[in-house]
UniProtKB/TrEMBL annotation, chains A, B:
One Pfam family this sequence matches: Acyl-CoA_dh_N
The Acetyl-CoA dehydrogenase-like C-terminal domain, residue ranges: 468-585
Reactions mediated catalytically: 3-(methylsulfanyl)propanoyl-CoA + oxidized [electron-transfer flavoprotein] + H(+) = 3-(methylsulfanyl)acryloyl-CoA + reduced [electron-transfer flavoprotein]
Residues of the Acyl-CoA dehydrogenase/oxidase N-terminal domain: 77-158
Ranges in a coiled coil: none
Residue ranges annotated for the Acyl-CoA oxidase/dehydrogenase middle domain, each copy included: 163-272
Cofactors, names only: FAD
Assigned protein family: Belongs to the acyl-CoA dehydrogenase family.
Cross-referenced Gene3D superfamilies: Acyl-CoA dehydrogenase/oxidase, N-terminal domain, Butyryl-CoA Dehydrogenase, subunit A, domain 2, Butyryl-CoA Dehydrogenase, subunit A, domain 3
Keyword Translocase recorded: no
Protein's UniProt name: 3-methylmercaptopropionyl-CoA dehydrogenase
Listed InterPro entries: Acyl-CoA_dh-like_C_dom (IPR025878), Acyl-CoA_Oxase/DH_mid-dom (IPR006091), Acyl-CoA_Oxase/DH_mid-dom_sf (IPR046373), AcylCo_DH-like_C (IPR036250), AcylCo_DH/oxidase_C (IPR009075), AcylCoA_DH/ox_N (IPR013786), AcylCoA_DH/ox_N_sf (IPR037069), AcylCoA_DH/oxidase_NM_dom_sf (IPR009100)
Amino acid sequence: MNSYKAPLRDINFLLTDVFNAGALWASFPKLEGSLDEAIAGAVLEEAGKLAGEVLAPLNRSGDEEGAQWRDGVVTTPSGFREAFATYADGGWIGFTGNPAFGGLGMPKMLAVHVEEMLHGSNSSFALYSVLSSGASLAIDAHACEELKTKYLPNIYAGVWAASMCLTEPHAGTDLGLIRTRAESQADGSYRISGTKIFITGGEHDLTENIIHLVLAKLPDAPAGPKGISLFLVPKVMVAADGSLGERNALSCGSIEHKMGIKASATCVMNFDGATGWLVGEANKGLAAMFTMMNYERLTVGIQGVGCAHASYQTAVAYAKERLQSRSPSGAIAVDKVADPIIHHPDVRRMLLTMKALTEGGRALATYVGAQLDIAKHGVTREQRAEADTRVALLTPVTKAFLTDTGLESCVHGQQIFGGHGYIREWGQEQRVRDVRIAQIYEGTNGIQALDLLGRKVLGDGGKAVDGFLSEIRRHAAEPHVEHRDALLAAVNELEDVSRWIADRAAADPRQVGAASVEYLHLFGYVTYAYLWSKMASAAQANLAADPDFYSAKLATANFYFERLLPRIEGLSACLRGGAACLYELATEQF
Amino acid sequence: MNSYKAPLRDINFLLTDVFNAGALWASFPKLEGSLDEAIAGAVLEEAGKLAGEVLAPLNRSGDEEGAQWRDGVVTTPSGFREAFATYADGGWIGFTGNPAFGGLGMPKMLAVHVEEMLHGSNSSFALYSVLSSGASLAIDAHACEELKTKYLPNIYAGVWAASMCLTEPHAGTDLGLIRTRAESQADGSYRISGTKIFITGGEHDLTENIIHLVLAKLPDAPAGPKGISLFLVPKVMVAADGSLGERNALSCGSIEHKMGIKASATCVMNFDGATGWLVGEANKGLAAMFTMMNYERLTVGIQGVGCAHASYQTAVAYAKERLQSRSPSGAIAVDKVADPIIHHPDVRRMLLTMKALTEGGRALATYVGAQLDIAKHGVTREQRAEADTRVALLTPVTKAFLTDTGLESCVHGQQIFGGHGYIREWGQEQRVRDVRIAQIYEGTNGIQALDLLGRKVLGDGGKAVDGFLSEIRRHAAEPHVEHRDALLAAVNELEDVSRWIADRAAADPRQVGAASVEYLHLFGYVTYAYLWSKMASAAQANLAADPDFYSAKLATANFYFERLLPRIEGLSACLRGGAACLYELATEQF
């Protein structure tokens, strides 16, 4: 099953009915009125075609062939080169890029949907693209004009690709421990030496050059995270006229054998005195990387949604076809030997769980995308600052909650198939394997939870979360709000829990990490409740225009509020179990 | 990481301190005093050695090589043949088998621990063994003396293996739909024709013969599940003197490419007029299969525990070694660049979750094993009947809850490794892939939940569940019971929820399937609360004898009651969302 159909109608609903994207875009001076909902629709349709016709057919073969390493050369699976060329020709890699260097300058609120289609059709392929987009963002934000002029146009055009080289064998979460060194040279360049691991797209055959962004330490750098600098290190040296010269002193030592995303090359990269250039200021490399983090983490969250939605599509098709036992309320397909399993309540529960979580996740990605756009394009400084705060607060939620629920959804999507879900046949087991990485990379979900609770919620004394909850309450105060009472009760619960933790965290610093994952999930369910209330309210307002479509939104919202939101009661109760019980066991007793 | 260490001390705690196995075994006339706790300990130590030294080293290579099919011949991975011979020589396949035919007649309460070691060290290998044990159980219970005499000794001895052939392409959950036919022959045998899929160990090179138990329909059989008969169909014909003759008319058409348990051959089996013999009565094949179901489902549950425990062992070792960031309460390994991650609260939370769920699952398997033994060996008819009811009630819980929490645990065990968990290196990703099947086969966990709620709880008007809850309350009424109040509150909640569902199920038959999975999970957490209360009470009573060991049990129990049991609040709240919201969406609207 390699078919994939982009959820264009659902996206249109979010952009038009729920978030009024047209008005938002019209308010951005830099867009100069170049984008409206009709154009956006055409663009997304094009992306959907690419995903369905070019990328989806390579998803399973890519998994089976995998990326191959031989003597430092990485070969991507059959068809990936051609697909990447087609994709690059469409301008998609520079979709949100800076127009001054050939990017299309499209808003992130639109890009999130393209990214969902990439991940839904072919997660391994998606990574080659989003890494280039992400790295070019850091270059655009922090590199000098010379580097930008030299590298950005070709990255945007997909002539060259890019990678991010952060992790080292002993330094993953704790990047302060990295050992890669950079020594300054007389000509202003640096010599980079060290080993990086888990480098997605560190080497491949899709482009003639790969531009690595590498974290390294200068000789006199302070210890820890404040002594990290960022360098641009091309695989092949680029002359002043833009022509390619000789190979730089770097190589791919091997690639990893992984659970999933097998067509994505995960590389060990050896830098052996490779020539590089400083991006941004010395010792401020982590800050420069964080520019792109909010974008990348949102993209990883979207991987959860994309895989979940693809799994849902396949599961729905199967559940409508597969005949097994009779519906509990009496035979439905009376002319058949049994009823389609979609009529069984537990199968419906799984499908609706997938549907409600996926559409909630897509709504959150759209919302955060819009906030990123406002932070960049908003007319007033206050607007931009508020959006920036909202993005910072919601980025860890988006990354972790969309991927945790993404795994849950893909597991349901596999379970619906019974034994047929465990074998390759329908591709459902690949979704589970592919989506699993999204909970791990780009900062594990445990780290996201610490970031949310420790830094974003408690770190500013609760201001950011208050701002968000005020927005939800303003929504709830509007006339004709669906699920108002349940939403407000959930917001109150989140506020209670936040206060409960804050009251204890000062006295016991372990309390933050002890509560963080359950807190993030609670935060996620409350956020989805907000978005499902918004979606249901929009659906109710438009019901007459397309009863079939909008009534499905209302029904899914009902399911969410009846059967999923109450999960917060368990999360809250477990979290209040506190930190002490985590430390009763001595380390040796594990 | 192929190391595996059997949890002998923990098993001894369960057998001796918690369940007083010695006294139970002494009460069984058939065991004739041949088994006590010391002998059991020696037996388990032997099994642990086999698992650690013979099976664990083949776990990863087995996954990488996989079972191979060529022209109908299935080759198991390197080392499997020798390992199977060693295992069979030890008498393990007939461990619980009937002594009249060469089995060892050991109690299931002991066998569950051997099975955990099998699954913990090598799930794929385990399947070849447990299928033979399970099939021989059905033969022993239902076949005529001639078949038993002819086949059981060689199966027990591991000279021959066995398989269960139930599923067909269009008939998985709904076995009433099977199309495989059996025609009676003049000599009393039958000709079996049809195709079976997902046949574990349907073909392999471990033994010179494979005895298939095949579900098929006689020409005049009633439609549906009441028209199914069970047949014994050997791969190679066996002469009256026990010597092997020619091949029977059956063959392995292909094997599946699966997410995990890759060293286990999952076969398409074609029966082309193969000769077989009826086992038990005509049209009562499903009942005959159900004899072994309680055993097999318990074993599959144990797969969840085995994989989870193996993942836990590896994760603990890694968490003690891996240095990353500082503990929130200040540096601990002051001479190192960072602290071992086991000091971080969220890592401890994941490890303790694995530990509490795994030990709870092991306790439940032990308890159900003991009940199976009482049902078989109990002195009075009342004892046997009560145990039988308890087994019937708890079998679906054990199968589904141990495997659902098994997946959760293995996912935690992978997550603790960050990126290193996603690659093959430490084997953590293989555990996730291997354990996943246990939620699917032997009746999906959704089907287990329906069996629990529909048949076992509501089907007898709540008598079985009342009996179990009375047992828990009797325990809680004893002096010196740990976690008494929390346990009783949880029992009350389960009772409330059971009543809530019963009140609605009569009016809305969809309510059972709508509530069943959350109900089963709730049931599982309450059952673990009972067992953790028992374990903590036993640990408290013995604390002085081994403070280090028993205090760890007390601490883990505290964690369970503080941080895991409260999950029931969410389950209860979600379940009460009811059935109606599952059916608001029309089928076409999915």
